[in-house]
Amino acid sequence: MAPLPSKLAYVPFVSVENMMRLVHHIGIEKVLTDLADQIEADFRRWPLFDKTPRVASHSDVGVIELMPTSDGETYGFKYVNGHPKNMAEGLQTVTAFGLLADVNSGYPKLLSEMTLLTALRTAATSAMAARHLAPKGARTMAMIGNGAQSEFQCLAFKAVCGIDSVRLYDIDPAATERCARNLAGSGLTVVKCRSSQEAIEGAQIITTCTADKQYATILTDNMVGSGVHINAIGGDCPGKTELHRDILLRSRIFVEYPPQTRIEGEIQQLDPDHAVTELWQVIAGDVAGRADDRQITLFDSVGFAIEDFSALRYVAQAIAGTPFFTRLDMIADPDDPRDLFGMFQRAADSVAA
Ligand SMILES: NC(=O)c1ccc[n+]([C@@H]2O[C@H](COP(=O)([O-])OP(=O)(O)OC[C@H]3O[C@@H](n4cnc5c(N)ncnc54)[C@H](O)[C@@H]3O)[C@@H](O)[C@H]2O)c1
User: Fold this and answer.
1) Alpha helices for 224-333 (secondary structure H)
2) Ligand 1 atom 30: the closest Cα is on which residue?
3) What angle do CA 37, 43, 263 make, to 5 degrees?
4) Which member of 21, 168, 188, 246 has the greatest number of CB atoms within 10 A?
5) pLDDT given for residue 279 in this prediction
6) Is 333 a catalytic residue?
7) Which InterPro entries match (predicted)?
8) Closest CA to 188 of 217, 156, 149, 218
9) In this predicted structure, what is the pLDDT of residue 243?
10) Beta carbons within 10 angstroms of residue 307's beta carbon
11) How far apart are CA 88 and CA 66, in angstroms?
12) Helical H segments across 27-172, by residue range
């Protein structure tokens, strides 16, 4: 009879079902607020992380990416795809899973679904950035692109920034209908709009979260007045942007990790040395955020590995002592570390039995 795997061989695994149960158990607005705080805390210690632009494998229809980082004690990575054409085929545009490991032993310590977690962490990061950059007293947000990420974005801005009204627009009215329906009862005033122009009327924050594998112009320069904060989520691949270049030239631009954002973000439209501010420096108090009421601030978000690392660590803490995970027999870990083959050989008995 083969010996049972050791304790270290079992890796806690959070399935999609358990992630949903965990978030309902805690409450989604609390999760979004906690995630914003955890991501902010990790941005504050930004210099000590290993950082690299994500490793992207592009095809004509989408991208598959690996996003690694480490804080010296814990290593993490996310696998994520982006396939704008998927939605029309009944599939998600973005799916993901991720892993944390112990730097000391190299053994994994968490495996988790991250499709839902990416939506949560993206929304929490956006709202955390807006907490530092949006005009004071902002209450209304335009939400352009009403797909999978959109409700999460709206709820994060409510929970973290105090937004009480959202103005929705999507080229597909059915997406706007669904988003509005899902937000009913959330406490947000929801206004369905027929154009981007209508959506941004009276909004102090504009979130663009559309999916298109090409340069798109969701906002043109004449649409954007002074003093707003733009949270640009959907432009996150080479050749995939949402804002007209002239808006960028009028804005103070904040980014996650410049070497990645210059390849993937809105700023791929600008000269490679165009001045941008790293968000972590604002959070650490090294650089001022919004200068005045008239400035246009732009968070050119592409999603960075440290946000996923923070989200996975949050999940690892949150599942402790709960039933919201299972244990996977994932690591071959014989009692005698050199007897990997012996462990394999003994397993023959259980096959024969
Ligand atoms: N920055 C980040 O960290 C981050 C994280 C996750 C996803 N994303 C990106 O955000 C985008 C949205 O993701 P999703 O999962 O919600 O995608 P989705 O396919 O579910 O939704 C996209 C929506 O945009 C709409 N749309 C497309 N073109 C439009 C236009 N011109 N005007 C208005 N609406 C338009 C579509 O009809 C669709 O409803 C994707 O591009 C994705 O890659 C970024």
Assistant:
1) 245-250, 258-264, 279-283, 305-319
2) 171
3) 125
4) 168
5) 98
6) no
7) NAD(P)-bd_dom_sf, ODC_Mu_crystall, ODC_N
8) 156
9) 95
10) 25
11) 25
12) 28-44, 115-133, 150-161
**Cβ neighbours, 10 Å, residue 312:** 25
- Quote the ligand 1 centre to 350 CA distance (angstroms): 49
Do the beta carbons of residue 21 and residue 322 sit within 8 Å? no
Q: Which atom of ligand 1 is nearest to the CA of 92?
A: 20
CA dist 295 and 63 (Å) reads: 34
Low-confidence ranges of the chain (pLDDT < 50): none
β-strand partners of 100: 76, 110
246, amino acid identity: D
What residues have CB less than 8 Å from 9, skipping those under 6 apart? 329, 330, 331, 332, 333
Residues with CB under 6 A from ligand 1: 82, 87, 93-94, 118, 122, 144-149, 170-172, 175, 209-212, 216, 218, 233-234, 236, 301-303
User: Helix (H, G, I), strand (E, B), or coil: what is residue 12?
Assistant: strand
Q: What is the pLDDT of residue 167?
A: 98
Q: Whose CA is nearest to atom 42 of ligand 1?
A: 234
Residues 6+ apart with CB under 8 A from 302: 235, 236, 255, 256, 260, 261, 264, 265
Q: For helices 115-133 and 150-161, give the axis angle rounded to 10 degrees.
A: 40
Burial-class residue 222 by CB neighbours within 10 Å (0-12, 13-18, 19+).
Answer: exposed
Which atom in ligand 1 lies closest to the alpha carbon of residue 304? 3
* Residue from 115, 170, 192 to probe ligand 1 pocket by mutation (most atoms less than 8 Å from CB): 170
Instruction: Give the closest residue (by CA) to ligand 1 atom 27.
Output: 210
Active site residue: 34, 170, 236, 300, which one? 236
Amino acid present at 294: R
Which pLDDT score, from 0 to 100, does residue 26 have?
Answer: 98
User: Model-level pTM greater than 0.90?
Assistant: yes
